[in-house]
């Protein structure tokens, strides 16, 4: 884990806010909108996020802020990922890596095409 993502079992909402760059009210709202996001509560009633919960938050953030999905669209996308038998948060990095690899292969093919005069 990185310095911003310390290796421990539970994270407070303020720690998750620091890790993800989101405000606490956004996290609480997303909990009401996304069934997949449901951190446990400790004895004091405070939210206790696990690493998987943080990965879900990061996926939702990516869908909403980067991919520009609506809440409903992000809910559908998460359901599709779940139906495909994949864990949503773990598919995101692989998808980005695959996209980058394909773009690099495409650039190399274009260079080869120019070299052979095509």
UniProtKB/TrEMBL annotation:
Pfam families: MerR_1
PROSITE patterns: HTH_MERR_2 (PS50937)
Keywords associated with the record: DNA-binding
Entry GO MF terms: DNA binding; DNA-binding transcription factor activity
Source domain of life: Bacteria
Every HTH merR-type domain range: 10-80
CDD domains, per the entry: HTH_MlrA-like_sg2
Cited SMART domains: HTH_MERR
Matching PANTHER family: BLL5018 PROTEIN, REDOX-CYCLING DRUG-SENSING TRANSCRIPTIONAL ACTIVATOR SOXR
Protein name: HTH merR-type domain-containing protein
Species name: Candidatus Glassbacteria bacterium GWA2_58_10
């Amino acid at each position: 884990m990185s310095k911003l993502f310390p290796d421990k079992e539970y994270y407070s909402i303020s720690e998750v806010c620091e890790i993800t760059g989101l405000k606490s009210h956004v996290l609480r709202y997303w909990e009401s909108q996304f069934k997949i996001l449901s951190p446990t509560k400790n004895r004091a009633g405070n939210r206790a996020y696990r690493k998987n919960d943080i990965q879900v938050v990061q996926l939702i953030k990516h869908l909403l802020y980067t991919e520009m999905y609506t809440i409903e669209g992000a809910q559908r996308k998460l359901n599709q990922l779940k139906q495909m038998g994949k864990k949503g948060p773990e598919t995101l990095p692989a998808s980005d890596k695959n996209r980058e690899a394909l773009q690099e292969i495409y650039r190399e093919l274009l260079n080869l095409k120019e070299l052979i005069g095509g």
